[in-house]
Amino acid sequence: MTQKQFLEKPLKSQIKARKTSSGRNNKGHITSWHRGGGHKRLYREIDLKRKHTQGIVVGLEYDPNRSAYLARIFNPDNKKQNYILAPTSIQKGEVVRSNSKRRGLDNAHSKPLYHILTGTPVHNISLRPGEDGKLLRASGSYGYVLKKTKNMAQIRLKSGQYRWFDIKTQATNGIIGNTEHRFIKLKKAGHARWLGHRPIVRGVAMNPVDHPHGGGEGKTSGGRPSVTPWGKPTKGAATRRLKKKNVEI
Fold this sequence. Notes:
The chain has a single domain, classed as SH3 type barrels, CATH 2.30.30.30. The chain is extended and about 80 Å long. It has one helix and 14 strands. It is mainly beta. The chain has a six-stranded antiparallel sheet, with no helix packed on it. It has a four-stranded antiparallel sheet with strand order 5-4-3-6, with no helix packed on it. A hairpin with a 4-residue loop joins strand 4 and strand 5.
């Protein structure tokens, strides 16, 4: 992937505003801590079903909402463009097809598991036929088709888990691109804030009114097993059994 392949401006027809939750649920309670702020983002509509998208790769594009890159596809039949998840080694000018019945190792071609050869790396797998792809969508993700029966196909996921899927389930050939995303290091504190990561303050650095670990003369390590700001154990309840005292003399 060369720098010249990347497109600067996204498709206006495929972007929309999306409100961030800042780690709060539908009741307004924080369920994921230390999230909020961050740079403004526009959500890109991506074809995750991969039922009808086919055409020529116009170029690649950065997506602020995910670790993978996007490939912009131009369909010469209806003169429309849309996005798909970009696998590795995809190049500008390549032809991408959906619902392909070829059993080859066609990169970025989407097809049912029935038409995918065993031992082939795949990504963007749907849980059931006709649904959006839910699994193996992050950068560098892929699974292997290990075996197939008349109605089912077994896939080894990136986590090492083995799962069976319906043979009509849609999947895409190839490995998700931008495989070096996990090696990116944040250059400064502001970089984390751009991503929506807020600072984390240790309990032992607080006052006693703010946290059970707070207070004390000088630096302390808490003086008790780790607890939450509300006094609940963070590492589980104590499991050590105390010895019974010998009362007999």
